[in-house]
Design a protein that fits this description.
CATH topology of the largest domain: Beta-Lactamase
Structural class: alpha+beta
CATH architecture of the largest domain: 2-Layer Sandwich
Number of domains: 2
CATH class of the largest domain: Alpha Beta
Number of helices: 4
Number of strands: 7
Distance between the termini: 20 Å
Oligomer: single chain
Order of helices and strands: HHEEEEHEEEH
Strand order of the largest sheet: 3-2-7-6-5
Helix content: 40-55%
Length: 190
Amino acid sequence: MGKKFNLFWEVTKYWLPLVALTTVFCALVYVVAQNNLRSNANDPQIQMAEDVAANLANGTAPQLLDKIDMAKSLAPYLIVFDDSGKVLSSSATLDGQTPLPPSGVFPDGKSKGELRFTWQPQSGVRSAAVLVHFSGKDSGFVLAGRSLREVEKRKDSLTQLVALGWLAAIVVTLPLVLFFSWYPRRTARA
């Protein structure tokens, strides 16, 4: 019983640090990859919002845009607001109406010039949104957004892959630690 008990503690002594190291490594991979996925979700909206804001600042009138149902479409959308947050033009619809972002984004967007945020105007409808303030001949805000539905599917796949990788690493390290803990004892007896 004593030898088995010592073997248990020896295996635990080497295996638990490997489990901890594997956990930290997998968590790091997940955080970096998830952050990259979410950050990249803003890319087209940044360009769209900045281009439209520059045109509006130079006096171009907001144009009527084709309507995009935020709950169903993956297409990027635009909403143009005046300086007080009133909608001037929009391609986004949700339940037949132009959705409004939280009122707090306007002061933040005005002070920072650009604000990137995740917007959930309705349960199950999440968007990567970029709000750009413009001023010139006219002033106001341009919000460009697009659905996070596909990004969230990729994030779920990433979660599963990292979890499987973690589990595989844990399962592989235990027999290795057992072997290297047991083998020297066996050869010492021979």
